[in-house]
UniProtKB/TrEMBL annotation:
GO biological process: one example: cellular response to oxidative stress
Polar residues bias spans: 120-131
Name recorded for this polypeptide: YAP1-binding protein 1
Gene name linked to the record: YBP1_1
One cellular component (GO) term of this entry: cytoplasm
Family matches, as Pfam families: Kinetochor_Ybp2
InterPro entries: YAP-bd/ALF4/Glomulin, YBP1/2
Residue ranges, annotated region (Disordered): 113-144, 236-257
Organism: Friedmanniomyces endolithicus
Domain of life: Eukaryota
């Protein structure tokens, strides 16, 4: 059909009024007519009158309708169009991610920082032109495979954000925060409903915010040709004036402060939404060393995450979001909206009414600190963590643990069940403190113990073995930093006596074992020349008192639990505590074999006074025999029999026999 014969041309006013013409467009709109409509929309008067009602009609035709939507953003009434754009954002229907997109490994900040703290070898790797398997990367002589087209919902999100980037600078009003508040809420709501291509969406969000605010820093280049730059859309500079605006209107300092706080709050909420909803991973990385940093450099799915967070960090710095503000938000009491509130809140009356996201603040602050360490760049944040010094374990990190964990709003209220991203950020900050030797001073032994109790529980309860390991390392290192021997002994005793978690009791045995070895080096045995200086106080771990006070918990009486109890009940107790039993037996073996400990620690008295042989060792031996019989065919526990169970019983038998043979060393000293 010739263009002159198109109904969109023939019905142009004055042949019809604007309402009638809009109806004609709606009934005749199709991909073939979009070039014609694009020409029609170059008429500013026409677009001002009908443009805002065309937004919801054109969105389903993306990406072909992108030019028409840009025309509406440039020439339509910005106040009316912006309402339609935000409404359309909320109505986008996203597809759920497929199973394949969930099958991704996950890097954690704590993991990367833990490797950096333990061994200064985890540096940001240099770029290479190919992967380990020889696949050529963009920039090589081979052809580059183009990224597949984005889903319609994602294209809609990107196009609507491009419109917002045009519309907001066009609005001339004394109170731009009212429009900005509506826009940011709609973007966040739409982004929260999405499940795929979130990195492209984040890039578009960053560009939109920079355009609205006038920030001129260019977007950071992505380190791989991942298709993310396709989210950056160029826009025309030919924009119509705001027909309802007054060029003489000037915003007040209070209004500027409200705008700034809205944007800062938005960045923290976007950070929370993105990081707390990363797809679950199929494997838990056990030791995140340099090779895993390289995976994030070379694997597209993973490098895109790093690029996305890098863009958010730079945007936060451009918006002058300071460390002070983030940390203050992290420990603030969050005000939850009243029940029954609508999705869209009323615009704030002042900057003071706009809270930052508490979780988002923690995540963003951690990302800022970690980027300076992992990528060897100096922190560009506006201020330090506190006006009088750096971020320290006590009191700063301890305060974060207290305010950010065990919240019913995140997890089920049980410590360690919070989202992995939040736990990762909290642990990463602790590792940063260790790397900087920023321990600080606990206000009291109670504060010290409270801190260790939280990190120790994280090492027990977190579903991620990776995060459990980092929490254990943090707990052990902070515990060893306490110069007061009695305080360290008290925490170990409290853990052994009261902690219900077997894996934490295993850790406690490891702590006392380490203290014992360090306080009693072989060179200090009688007959050697090396002696501690008289002015140096003797460690409590170099005296019999420490082990004697812990003996009832290290080598408990087990007859009632494992012998007197019914087989099924005894078996359950045995299974829950087997690792603890084996760890205690191994520590006992060390005490028996290390002859230089026998005199200084009164190991013979420890053995006799606590009836270790009769109350601890023999019940374990009898229980192993009892369960072995019960697991045989026809026994009470036949259904529990597996190769792994049999191997565990064999290991217990072997360990008991090693300890029994080592008892003879007590008679040789």
């Amino acid at each position: 059909m010739a263009e002159d014969e198109s109904p969109l041309i023939k019905a142009l006013p004055p042949e019809s009024d604007y309402i009638t013409y809009l109806t004609i467009v709606e009934y005749n709109l199709n991909p073939e007519n979009l070039p014609v409509l694009h020409k029609v929309l170059q008429d500013e008067t026409m677009t001002t009158n009908i443009g805002w009602d065309l937004v919801h009609l054109l969105v389903p035709f993306l990406p072909e309708s992108e030019q028409c939507l840009e025309d509406i953003a440039r020439l339509g009434n910005p106040r009316e169009v912006i309402l339609k754009v935000t409404e359309s954002l909320r109505l986008i229907e996203y597809d759920l991610p497929d199973d394949e997109s969930l099958d991704e490994p996950s890097q954690t900040l704590a993991g990367a920082l833990d490797s950096r703290v333990r061994a200064e070898s985890s540096t940001y790797p240099t770029k290479t032109a190919s992967t380990a398997d020889g696949e050529k990367r963009p920039g090589s002589s081979q052809m580059v495979e183009l990224s597949p087209p984005l889903p319609l919902a994602v294209s809609q999100f990107l196009a609507l954000l491009s419109m917002l980037a045009i519309l907001h600078p066009r609005i001339k009003t004394k109170y731009p925060s009212r429009f900005l508040s509506t826009t940011l809420q709609a973007i966040l709501a739409s982004f929260s409903n999405s499940g795929m291509h979130r990195e492209e969406m984040l890039l578009a969000i960053v560009k939109t915010v920079k355009t609205i605010t006038g920030i001129r820093r260019p977007l950071l280049p992505t380190r791989r040709s991942s298709g993310m730059m396709s989210a950056v859309r160029s826009i025309s500079n030919q924009h119509a004036a705001d027909p309802e605006g007054n060029t003489g209107d000037h915003t007040s300092p209070e209004e500027e402060a409200t705008k700034a706080k809205l944007l800062q709050s938005f960045v923290t909420h976007i950070t929370e939404e993105y990081l707390l909803n990363l797809p679950p991973h199929a494997e838990d990385v056990p030791d995140l060393s340099k090779k895993f940093a390289e995976r994030f450099q070379h694997e597209e799915k993973l490098s895109r995450r790093t690029d996305a967070i890098g863009q958010i960090v730079m945007l936060a710095r451009d918006l002058e979001l300071t460390d002070d503000a983030l940390l203050a938000a992290a420990v603030a009491v969050e005000k939850l909206p009243p029940v029954g509130d609508q999705d869209e809140a009323e615009p704030p009356a002042s900057a003071d009414e706009i809270p930052l996201s508490r979780v988002g603040a923690v995540l963003l602050y951690t990302a800022m600190q970690a980027s300076a360490i992992l990528y060897d760049t100096s922190s560009k944040s506006t201020s330090t963590a506190a006006s009088d010094g750096e971020f320290t374990i006590f009191p700063d990190h301890q305060s974060l643990l207290k305010h950010c964990l065990s919240s019913p709003a995140h997890g089920n209220g049980t410590l360690g069940t919070e989202p992995e991203a939040l736990l990762d950020a909290i642990l990463a900050l602790g590792l940063i403190c260790l790397g900087r030797d920023s321990m600080g001073e606990p206000a009291s032994d109670e504060q010290f113990n409270e801190y260790l109790q939280v990190t120790a529980l994280l090492s027990s309860n977190s579903p991620s073995p990776n995060l459990r390991g980092h929490a254990h390392y943090l707990t052990t290192t902070v515990l060893r930093s306490q110069p007061d021997d009695d305080a360290r002994l008290s925490f170990v005793r409290d853990t052994l006596e009261h902690c219900p978690f077997e894996n934490l009791k295993v850790s406690a045995v490891g702590w006392i074992k380490g203290e014992t070895i360090e306080a009693n080096p072989p060179a200090s045995t009688p007959g050697h020349l090396h002696q501690a200086p008289e002015s140096e106080a003797k460690s409590v771990f170099a005296t019999p008192f420490a082990l004697e006070s812990l003996a009832p918990y290290l080598f408990p009486s087990l007859h009632v639990d494992l012998i007197s109890a019914p087989a099924a009940e005894a078996w359950q107790i045995f299974q829950l505590n087997l690792s603890f039993y084996l760890t205690s037996l191994n520590f006992l073996y060390l005490l028996l074999c290390a002859k230089h400990l026998h005199h200084s620690l009164s190991v013979a008295d420890l053995w006799k006074n606590n009836d270790v042989a009769g109350s601890f060792l023999q019940p374990l031996r009898d229980a192993a025999k009892r369960f072995g019989t019960a697991l045989d065919d026809g026994g009470e526990l036949t259904d529990e029999r597996t190769p792994g169970v049999i191997a565990e019983l064999m290991l217990l038998d072997e360990t008991i026999e090693r300890v029994t043979r080592a008892v003879r060393f007590l008679n040789e000293t």
